[in-house]
Amino acid sequence: MYHYLKWAAVGLFLRRNLRVLGIILLAAAMILLSDWIYRDLVDYNLAVGYKDRLWILLLGKWVWIVCWAGVLVWGVFRIVPSGRGKRLSETKRPKGSEQLRRVDTIDRRLEKFRHGKVRRRSEILLEKKGKKGDYHRTK
After folding, report:
1. Which of 22, 50, 90, 126 might form a disulfide with 45, Cβ 3.0–4.6 angstroms?
2. What is the pLDDT of residue 96?
3. Residue 84 in 3-state DSSP?
4. How far apart are CA 34 and CA 42, in angstroms?
């Protein structure tokens, strides 16, 4: 049974974080790709004889890596639990006035519902068309 629970937890984690995991994998792939492209461009520029452009390539490579590393760090921080799911006993409990305010808003909504006239959608449509008895007549 433990095996099933483990896979259920993994499945739930993947379902909740699939988009962020994809972004993390994309960022890691872009960092690796930038290194491969940099090596090819350096080899090409050395073969052609443009040694003065190598610093531009190095600068571009590191700007690219830093940007994608920022995306990677953002994705990791999005996945790591931040303690938002702490139990109520571990966190500060709401004060009495906040609870009363919530109850008051719920009571006001219920009073509007109790004393207001609840109409069906069909009644509203019939009122727009005309009198209640008009829809039975055929022309």
Report:
1. 50
2. 57
3. coil
4. 12
Task: Give domain limits for the chain.
Answer: 2-79, 96-134
Task: Report how far residue 63's alpha carbon sits from residue 126's, in angstroms, rounded to the nearest whole number.
Answer: 66
Non-local (6+) Cβ contacts of 37 within 8 A are: 61
pLDDT at residue 94, rounded to an integer: 55
Task: Determine the Cα–Cα distance for residues 117 and 127; give it in Å rounded to an integer.
Answer: 14
Whether the full predicted model's pTM is greater than 0.85, yes or no, is: no
Looking up tokens 């259920």 gives 8
> From residue 11, how far is each of 17, 35, 127, 133 by CA, in Å?
10, 33, 52, 58
Residue 4 pLDDT more than 60? yes
Q: Look up tokens 């937890």; give the residue.
A: 9
Query: In angstroms, rounded to a whole number, what is the distance separating the alpha carbons of residues 32 and 97?
Result: 55
Task: At 53, list the tokens.
Answer: 């452009």
Rg, C-alpha atoms of the chain:
32
Confidence at residue 101, expressed as pLDDT on a 0 to 100 scale: 66
